[in-house]
Each structure stands twice: as C-alpha cells, then as structure tokens.
Known about the structure:
The chain is of the alpha+beta class. The protein has one domain (3-109). The protein has helices at 50-64, 67-80, 94-109, and strands spanning 3-9, 12-18, 26-28, 89-93. The protein has a four-stranded antiparallel sheet. α1 packs across α2. It is globular, with a radius of gyration of 13 Å. The model has no long low-confidence stretch (mean pLDDT 95).
Amino acid sequence: MRHYVGDRNPDGCEVMVLDTTHEGGGYPLDPRNDLRNHSPDGFEFGYSGSGPSQLSLAILADVLRDDKLADRLHIDFKNKVISRLDGNTFSLSEEDVRMAVAALAAGKKR
C-alpha cells in the first residue's frame, strides 16, 4: 500500500510516495501537469488554491490510475481532503484516498 507524505519547507512543498513494492521504496509524486497545469510552482495543502488543486489531481491520478476520473474528482477531493490538512506535514494512505473517493462518489449519487 502506498503512502503520500508531504512536507512544506522554505523551498516549497515536496510530496513523496512511499511504496515498498517500488525499487528504492518510493518516488517523488508526479505533479501531472500534463493533465492540468493548475500550479507551475508546485504542490501545496491546507487551503483552497492552485497548489492544492495540483496536489489533489496528482494524488488521485497516482492512486486511481485513471486520468479522466482523477480529473473529474480532483476539485471535490481538494475541498474535502487536501484543503483541510493543517500543519507543515501530512500523510495520507492509499486507503485514505480510496475511502474519500468512495464518499465523494456516494454523495454525487444522491
């Protein structure tokens, strides 16, 4: 199971994907600017803005492996999850992300 770990530092926000099945144990999260370029300056979290939008899109694309679904859900995911992360660090498991996506999908069916 993958874990998404973010750290805000003076140079910006870095997000690593910890994955024991990946050589080296993990990798930097791809911002997926090829899907949407919300924030050429990189990731952010803890508020609703362009950096959190980019982070939401990148996490969903990595977890879901479905670019169209990630694009469709990323703003709702940002509003429900990413914008609510406080402090200078965060950690989300793949399961946390999937549960949030399921809750978003259930809410849209109503």
